């Protein structure tokens, strides 16, 4: 999944369906958007929301937006959509670089600060895709099972 990224070209804007693109730029706003999408799904289907799945989705949204801010030149688009039993979170940024997991220790054996977000996303998501955007940058989409 994350060791072997699915990299593709994106021909349609990431906000083409679902909640649409936003001016979103902070992790807290991403978490609120995910909470709203999951709550709407649970109301519409008359099902209870799995707290573990919601927690995973919130962490993924936070990590993807934080990484876009810290490493990708800022969030250029955010999209959340519920498709059946899954939630899709997409975050676009200005960087063409594909995320990589860094070893937790440096070559001298010292523990690194940070670098845990991408491995968390890869572990919690059912699927992760990285798409190159036509105007430059990338979109990362993570799929989380809600049940």
UniProtKB/TrEMBL annotation:
Residues 35-141 form the Histidine kinase/HSP90-like ATPase domain. It comes from the Bacteria. InterPro entries: Anti-sigma-factor_SerPK, HATPase_C_sf, HATPase_dom. One of its GO terms (molecular function) is ATP binding. Residues 1-25 are annotated as: Disordered. Keywords: ATP-binding, Kinase, Nucleotide-binding, Serine/threonine-protein kinase, Transferase. This is ATP-binding protein. It comes from Streptomyces gilvifuscus.
């Amino acid at each position: 999944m994350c060791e072997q990224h699915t990299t593709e070209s994106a021909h349609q804007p990431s906000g083409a369906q679902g909640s649409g693109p936003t001016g979103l730029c902070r992790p807290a706003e991403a978490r609120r958007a995910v909470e709203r999408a999951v709550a709407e799904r649970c109301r519409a289907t008359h099902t209870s929301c799995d707290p573990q799945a919601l927690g995973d989705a919130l962490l993924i949204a936070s990590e993807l937006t934080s990484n876009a801010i810290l490493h990708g030149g800022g969030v250029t688009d955010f999209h959340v959509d519920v498709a059946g039993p899954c939630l899709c979170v997409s975050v676009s940024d200005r960087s063409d670089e594909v995320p990589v997991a860094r070893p937790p220790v440096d070559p001298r054996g010292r523990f690194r600060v940070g670098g845990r977000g991408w491995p968390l996303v890869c572990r919690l998501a059912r699927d992760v895709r990285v798409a190159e955007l036509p105007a430059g940058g990338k979109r990362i989409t993570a799929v989380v099972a809600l049940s």
